[in-house]
Amino acid sequence: MAPSSSCLCLFLLVVCVLSAVGNGESSSGLMMDFYKESCPQAEDIIREQVKLLYKRHKNTAFSWLRNIFHDCAVQSCDASLLLDSTRKTLSEKETDRSFGMRNFRYLEDIKDAVERECPGVVSCADILVLSGRDGIVALGGPFIPLKTGRRDGKKSRSTVVEQYLPDHNESISSVLDKFAAMGIDAAGVVALLGSHSVGRTHCVKLVHRLYPEVDPALNPDHVPHMLKKCYDPIPDPKAVQYVRNDRGTPMILDNNYYRNILDNKGLLMVDHELAHDPRTRPYVKKMAKSQEYFFQHFGRAIALLSENNPLTGDQGEIRRHCNVANKNHYEE
Ligand code: HEM
Ligand SMILES: *[C@@H]1O[C@H](CO)[C@@H](O)[C@H](O)[C@H]1NC(C)=O
């Protein structure tokens, strides 16, 4: 190859690399501020709506955070979580792993506000992730810059939900494996579980630790409260019986969760095990000591989770309403 042409090749390569870095595009196909030209107000509108909803119903912020996990960890951040059941398919929302999930109808309010400004431009998958990001801030957590450009899936993934989302009593080995498949390490897993510093757990997920006899691993000081809240060995599925995940600061995303689980006050088996498994305990201890260390890993892990295998480019679609695929809404 003549020196001039190899020089040109190198030059072109450098230009390509620089332009890819320049607009922040990553291997996921997502980028910072994807809607800069097509809907510059998108992120502000979402932030404003999340704030308004939070003022009315504080627990909406818990839901936005939990949504990131339940959508992104099931194969792809594609808002498949939000689809309603159809005549042919069951929604992910109605599977057992989604038990207790709430506030989906308020997500439509956010979508509607964005649609009023930029119809047909911003995906539900991005709205789901960005509302989660803003929910974290409302709860006192860190602001996490996140990429956008996700597109919406057309199908429910309800048949595989159980393969991807760990159960409340799953082993730490299995939990670590599931997150490792998304590039999230043990420190990241420990940080993400810190989400259980807010919100609630229904008695149906807890009674097996209370009846027929109380799990000896539970802190005896915490048991009377749990028994009072979950007085029924077989809870009435229609009654709303639950225990708050963090009695100390139930509305704040903070590192109190780690002190609770070290104190054997973790509600779920996975919470308890996290503090006792040798692979995760060192991080639990560090996060219990330092909120900054917790937030640092939390931000990193949320970013990874939110970039799990998204649909981009011309894959999927931009849904008009988050609870139905366009085809089901406009045709047939
Ligand atoms: C091993 C992994 C996990 C398991 C087994 C698990 C399981 C659960 C269960 C059983 C509940 C109680 C639901 C109810 O009874 O209403 C819950 C609540 C919650 N989870 Fe997780 N979770 C896991 C990881 C995560 C992650 C990674 C996040 C966020 C990134 C998260 C966020 C939440 C939130 C915010 C709540 C409270 C929801 C509310 O009060 O509405 N969880 N989780
Ligand atoms: C976990 O709990 C479910 C009930 O929620 C039960 O069916 C299952 O057998 C339990 N699994 C283990 C490994 O204990």
TrEMBL record:
Catalytic activity: 2 a phenolic donor + H2O2 = 2 a phenolic radical donor + 2 H2O
GO biological process: hydrogen peroxide catabolic process; response to oxidative stress; rhythmic process
Amino acids binding heme b: H196
Binding site for Ca(2+) 2: D246, T249, D254
Enzyme class: oxidoreductase
UniProt keyword Metal-binding, yes or no: yes
Residue numbers marked as site, Transition state stabilizer: R66
Domain Plant heme peroxidase family profile: start-end pairs: 29-326
PROSITE patterns xrefs: PEROXIDASE_4
Keyword annotations of the record: Biological rhythms, Calcium, Disulfide bond, Glycoprotein, Heme, Hydrogen peroxide, Iron, Metal-binding, Oxidoreductase, Peroxidase, Secreted, Signal
Disulfide-linked positions: C39-C118, C72-C77, C124-C322, C203-C230
Cofactor: Ca(2+); heme b
Pfam family, one: peroxidase
Protein's cellular compartments: Secreted
Gene Ontology molecular-function annotations: heme binding; lactoperoxidase activity; metal ion binding
Signal peptide coordinates: 1-24
Assigned EC number: 1.11.1.7
Cofactor binding, note field: Binds 2 calcium ions per subunit. Binds 1 heme b (iron(II)-protoporphyrin IX) group per subunit.
Function recorded in the entry: Removal of H(2)O(2), oxidation of toxic reductants, biosynthesis and degradation of lignin, suberization, auxin catabolism, response to environmental stresses such as wounding, pathogen attack and oxidative stress. These functions might be dependent on each isozyme/isoform in each plant tissue.
Family, as annotated: Belongs to the peroxidase family. Classical plant (class III) peroxidase subfamily.
Protein known as: Peroxidase
